[in-house]
Amino acid sequence: MPASPETIDLDVLRYRPEQDEGPVWQRFAVPYASDMSVLQALQHIKDEQDGSLTFRWSCRMAICGSCGMMVNGRPALACQTFLRDMLPGPVRVEPLAHFPIERDLVVNADDFIRKLESIKPYLIPKSPRSLADGEYLQTPQQLAQFEQYSSCINCMLCYSACPQYGLDDAFTGPGVLALLHRYNADSRDGGRAARMEILNAEEGVWSCTAVGYCSEVCPKHVDPANAVNQNKLNSAMDYFLRFVSPRGASR
Amino acid sequence: MNGKSTVRRPYVRPMGGWWRRDPFFMRYMIREATALAVLAYAVVLTLGVVRLAQDEAAWNGWLDALRSPASLLLHAVLLVAMFVHAKSWFEIMPKTMPMLFVGGRRVAASTITRIGWAATVLASVVLIALAWGWRT
Fold first, then answer.
1. How many CB pairs under 8 A join A and B?
2. What is the pLDDT of residues A92-126, one digit of tens each?
3. Contact A215 B12 (CB under 8 A)
């Protein structure tokens, strides 16, 4: 095994709207340690070299979903990506692709948040229930129908992996559609009819061309490509069943 | 608020040449391009049906054209493209399906892909056997 380097270079894409016309690369050399994450390297830069470097982070353990960025061209959580896997460097760090850059590594997530709110991401009971009715019961198979999709941490890596979203941000996108499916697939939920409108739209599942990279980069194994593409069948059924069912398929 | 106007100026990055940015996107574009091979072969077969409907000379002309070196080369290229097409679509097929459960356990994605290949091999063998039997 080659000896560990003393330092490793990070090429960071910087954008300071008050002084930069567009994004510019800046190289920083940081002390190398084999257990150091990209996030720790950025924190070292901010603490010791340039306090103006701006990036989002919080939990340092891949659960808050704040530190998503492009590392060597691939969407990744900076806290979960280690310098030792990118030797000898330099490590290229860019803000999440397909989102407008606000400053340095911080992107504007307004579009994602707006879409997230639009899908009613909560259980809508089929009929009013009182506490006296007790808890809902589900079989393991009913749980399996939505459990993996409920692991989403809203890190938006899948949006940066989706060229269709990059080409046209009208697309509802992988993460939000996976979360929509998480509620539609839940046996306790009765809100399917209200969500099908978003799913059926051209900007819904039909803007997906099954690239599949969203599922590759997902740090929580949500498999959004599966959620989106199995709903193409549901959407088609919803469309055709209206001709045989007077109340439509989704009701 | 300090009354100053905002310095916000969100920067939108261009998407030109996006499919060259990642090998994953390159494989995706190759998969999509192989649909053209499927179209090309459909055109070849449709021409055969059209020639068959005309007369015997036309049909034999089409058969001769199929035996030409250019046609053999085209078919070799189309065969490779069809293989890539099948491989890449069988890989993504599990993503397009609802969860399958057999005996209470979820069917693995790799199993679904293998079933796709098994169906292809079976269909190809049956087709080749039929064609061979019909010739002799």
1. 75
2. 999 999 999 999 999 999 999 999 999 999 999 98
3. no
pLDDT score of A244 more than 90: no
B69 and B33 assigned to the same domain: yes
Taking the CA of residue A12 and the nearest CA in chain B, the distance in Å comes to: 15
Residue at B5 is within a domain:
no
3-class DSSP assignment, residue A231: helix
Q: Which residue has the tokens 């193409």?
A: A232
Q: Which pTM was predicted?
A: 0.89
pLDDT of amino acid A251: 45
The burial class, CB within 10 Å (0-12 / 13-18 / 19+), for A21 is: exposed
| Per-residue pLDDT, A178 | 96
| Number of compact structural domains in chain B | 2
Q: What is the CATH number of the domain that holds B55?
A: 1.20.1300.10
> CA A97 to CA A72: how far, in whole Å?
12
Q: Which fold has domain A110-241?
A: Fumarate Reductase Iron-sulfur Protein; Chain B, domain 2 (1.10.1060)
